[in-house]
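Quick board copy: two proteins, each given as sequence then tokens.
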Amino acid sequence: MRSRAFICSAAGVLLIAANAFAAKSSSTDRFTRELPLEIGGTLWVDNPIGNIEIIGVDKPGMSVAVSRTVTGDDRTALAEGREQTVISFEGGDRNTRFVRTIYPAVPARWTSTVSYVIRVPRTVHVRVAAKLAERVRIANIAGNVTVKSFTGAIILDGVSGASIIDTTNGKVTYIYHQRPVAHAQIQAVSADIDITVPPDSSFNWVADTLRGDVVTNLPVRAQFLGSAINGTVNAAGGPTITMQTLLGNIRLIGGDVKQVVHSLRQEFVPDPSPKMAMKTFLVPHGRYQLPIAGSNLDLTVGVADVEVGEIRGSARVHTGGGEIKLDTVMGDCIAISDGGPLNLGDVLGTLQASTQAGDVLVRSVRDGGRVFTAGGLIRVLYSGGALSLQSGGGDIIMRQAGGPVSAETHSGDINITADPNQKTPRIAAHTAQGNIIVSLSPKYGADIDAVILTSDADANTIHSDFAGLQIKSEQVGSRTRIRATGKVNGGGERVELYAEEGDIHISNLTASPVSIMPPLR
């Protein structure tokens, strides 16, 4: 009796489970979207769950086919999942497009996957961020390609531009239809790496696996450095293909896959020297690219370029040399290069930007901060807070100052335009050799103190569109000191201007200021 009761009870549990499974609801919707994209533009794709396929075509514009599948515990959960799985199309111009899937922080009673098939001009640059995908495939692209994923198959088919692949699990397949002409870097943890190239290809090759094997059917001149093989394929020269996996196998196939492959580990005697092994891993990769950082980003690299599309938090990036390019930072931003340009987009917090050599370009910074270059141009489109700008030698341009501005350069012109919505922010500008142009709104109230120190009083003067300034000149050694002081519109914060061997222009702002537009959705 007990046995029969147990069987009946178990059958009841199975029946309840089957009914619960049958009660789940699933729905798939599909749609397409056409967007403009120039042939030299950049496409960013962020899709945490689902497949991605990007195909290069020989025409401008971008076509996106989306398939979204939602499974819920019931119809209410299904509707909630469809509403909260957001497909976002963003981009401020025809040169940059963002396609992303946005999920809520903690979905409870539903799951969803989104798959994309995207056709773009074959010359665009492609940046992909994925987590759980059965497949990410990029085909027929001549621009640079970056793929960062956690698991799944990554296939690059006919990609001829420089590429970076960073994955944890799955498999990486790279198919070259023509001889490699650009660098490629593949990093994995437990993924196998397969690359197929034309048999007459010539390139430098680095293959590094700790526990797997390295096999090829091509002629290779190489030596082991620790766990890594450094060598050349066919003739010396050409680009460098780097393949690194901790637990997986590496295969390099030339043309005919039926040709017998051989293991390089059996042919070459490894050099166990730990110094040589460490040297291999410390070689800088030259470029770090990431479409989206989902939280704070803290990154320190050697001599390398850094490019990140969006940082959903604060950012701290330090490079030993190279360009830093951050498109959007949703918190505070610290960007430091020991030698290279800084290209910064929208910073929603404070900014601390510094480079020992190179131009600094900032689209907008909400809360102000400090920008420094030891030698180069500084150009800021908009600032909403107090901002300090300093160049060891180069022009400084502040297009729309919504807060106090301090600008100093040892050699170059300074051009500052005050936000017409601000009545009296403090402005200070100092150049040791150059001109100063300050544009103020007609209602701007300030106490002006402008000074020129010049060797030619006839060539360098102070010009003002505002009445009420008193101008005095005096001889200081072999040079002439010209000073203009007075109140504008009843006075206000101080505007202190100092220029050596140049002019000072205080202009009445009549043109409309530049507008900072949010990303399109």
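And the next:
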Amino acid sequence: MPSIAQQQTKLQQAVALHRNGALEQAQAIYHEILAMQPRHFDALHLLGVIAAQTRDPQRAVELIGKALEINPNSAAALCNRAAALHELGHLEQALANYDRAIALKPDYTEAHFKRGKLLHQTGQLDAALAAYERAVALKADYGAAHFHRGLVLHALGQLDAALGAYDRAAALATDDAEVHSWRGDVLWQLDRLDAALQSYDRAIEIDPAYAQAHSNRGIVLRKLEMLDAALESFDRAIALKPDYAEAHFNRGVVLRELRRLDEALESFGRAIALRADYAEAYCHRSYVRLLKGDFANGWLDHEWRWLDKYGSNIHERRNFPQPLWLGKENIAGKTILLHSEQGLGDTLQFCRYAKLVAALGARVILEVPRPLLNLLVDLEGVSQLVVKGTALPPFDYQCPLMSLPLAFNTDLDTIPAEVPYLRADRSKVAQWQARLGERIKPRIGLVWSGNPRNRNDRNRSIPLAELMPHLPAAHQYVSLQKDVREPDRQTLQANVQLLDFAAELHDLGDTAALCECMDLVISVDTLLAHLSGALGKRTWVLLPFDADWRWLTAPTDCPWYPTARLYRQARIGEWRGALERLEADLTRLR
């Protein structure tokens, strides 16, 4: 039998080969050693390591387990068996092995790091963060630990701290495409878009086939309103990974914004084919279908809004014990709750259906946000009006307002478009008429900006200074804005001919009464456009190139509001053409 010294020499040869990647040669020598000494701890352990490296974790667990029978206090063997158990999905056993390794060797950096990865995978983010922080405390230049620490901080929403971790990882691993790509992700979430683009470009420079970096680069380019370049990035991501559902979805969003609607539908359809529960894709497909007037399919897709984790409806979903009514059941003699959702403008647009529901013989309870209470108090078809958030009376069925078009199978020919269906308080109208005085020329109400928190506000709102030069002096102009932004306030103060009653508009009832005193309302796509349309006022709506689905695609008409005329941007971000058309029509107005 060879001596212990000879066995040791062979082991050293095998370890050198192993470190240099010559796994088959190293494996052969380890087997030679075991033939000489079947209970050789190192040979068994390192054969197990090779099994793990060659993607045979089950064999790795068996071999390292035999080694641990010989030396149960080897922290390295425990850590390596934990990694193999982790790969097999035996997470509790893996964690126990990591814990045992660290108990034997508290400064075992690799065990802390791998334990952090397991905790991260199982959603134990705080514990994972602590493990990664212990690893980088033990080894300050541990790039992978800094990167994974960044991932956990990112998941916890601590974006600045995550960026710091990614920066450190990138400095230590300059050629790691994944690090640069994730760094880009947190930068775009921090709205540092140019820096994010640089990170994605660096990731792609390192790994041109990195599909996720191409796709996320497209997201940033879209945010930068570089839509053609964004489309190219999504196309490249899909070419690299044809089954990349997110890239197909985001490609569809860009195509919709470019008004290439049929192509957008194709992209959303592909995303849904790849992921049947892709709620966000169904929602965006619904917007395109509704925009094109395909109401039958659009309303069906729109019901996915309750599952879209990026939409507002997921936070508004109600869990009533009463059944949802979508037009199937006979509700004659029953009480039904119609409840508002999304914005105030959405409520104003779809509250018109209350009359149709009541006509089926139901008693209608309408739940609305408090700012709409006084305005909707006399809405036809409503038996009882309640404020959202207060106690509800008994009811038999319930339906969200924006599901009513589906319940009534609404198509372009059956939109309930009779106006006015809202009316302002007569006494308030009289007060405003007295306040305004004798009408000596056409009186025009103006709304140039919406809610700044709206995700599309930058596209739909217009600076007052850009609007003013297109308002002929032959008319009297009245601001219907309740909230005026500071730059617009300066313009308003400089144009005393534009009457401003913001301080006297205490609620939407006041605004509706002031609207009633106008001969025409000009508004961007915001609440006041719906209010004026519902009051049956002549309403001119200024729309961005990528207008909301409810305005459809007709050049100037909207079937939801027969008294409305639309002025659409011809190009993204370019208001000049729409404003010139509006100015020409104002000049002809009598």
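Board note added afterward: Residues 335-407 form one domain.
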